[in-house]
Design brief:
Elements: H1 4-22, E1 47-51, H2 56-59, H3 67-71, E2 77-81, E3 86-87, E4 93-94, E5 97-103, H4 112-116, E6 122-124, H5 135-138, E7 140-141, H6 143-146, E8 147-149, H7 150-156, H8 158-188
Parallel strand pairs: 1-8
Antiparallel strand pairs: 1-6, 2-5, 3-4, 5-7
Helix pairs in contact: 7-8
């Protein structure tokens, strides 16, 4: 029948209009900012840098490999590698970024930086209330502003964070087992006495 779609649409509109006065479940308007809908776990906005431990400077997972900078489509990530390795939160010497800036006025929240990071160092935040009247000053975030704890990551993306921690723990256990096996093999290897040389 010609116009059946329009009639169905008008009937749905009328049902919702009348129901909004009689059924609280049909109220669709959220009085933001007084009322807020809970964010879904898959929500993503702008990237942040994950750190482990208490000290964000020592605990940054980022080793300044610059893969995210190269892969970023709008080229909004700027990284300068530190000249020398520094101890991380576990005391292991690692390279760290001397400069890590993200221009959120250019970032398109595509999450490519997260997908290409081999160290699980960069993730997407859910914070969206970032409006400012200073575009070039307040929307260019440095590494201190980008640093968020692993606890923050668990709070906003619990399922994903648990999977990442489990994978990192497995990789760490494999590396430790390999190091122990190499040390045991080196200790078990017989030491040959030096050859005597003729006078």
């Amino acid at each position: 029948m010609l116009g059946a779609g329009i009639i169905k649409g008008m009937a749905e509109t009328a049902r919702n209009f009348i129901g909004s006065y009689t059924d609280a479940n049909l109220l669709v308007t959220v009085e933001y900012p007084e009322q807020r809908l809970p964010l879904k776990e898959s929500t993503r906005n702008f990237p942040f840098l994950v750190f482990d431990g208490e000290d964000w400077q020592k605990g940054l997972r980022c080793v300044a490999c610059q893969i995210c900078e190269k892969e970023c489509p709008p080229q909004c990530i700027f990284i300068t590698k530190d000249a020398a390795k520094k101890p991380d939160y576990m005391g292991k010497l690692q390279f760290q970024p001397k400069v890590f800036d993200i221009d959120t006025s250019v970032c398109m929240s595509c999450q490519i930086c997260v997908e290409v990071c081999p160290f699980e160092a960069i993730k997407m935040d859910t914070e969206f209330e970032l409006s400012t009247d200073n575009r070039f000053g307040d929307l260019l975030l440095n590494k201190e502003q980008l640093a968020r704890s692993n606890e923050h990551y668990h709070k906003i993306h619990p399922t994903e964070a648990a999977e990442v921690d489990e994978r990192l723990a497995g990789e760490k256990a494999k590396a430790e087992a390999k190091a122990k096996a190499a040390a045991a093999a080196a200790a078990a290897k017989p030491v040959l006495p030096p050859k005597a040389t003729a006078p």
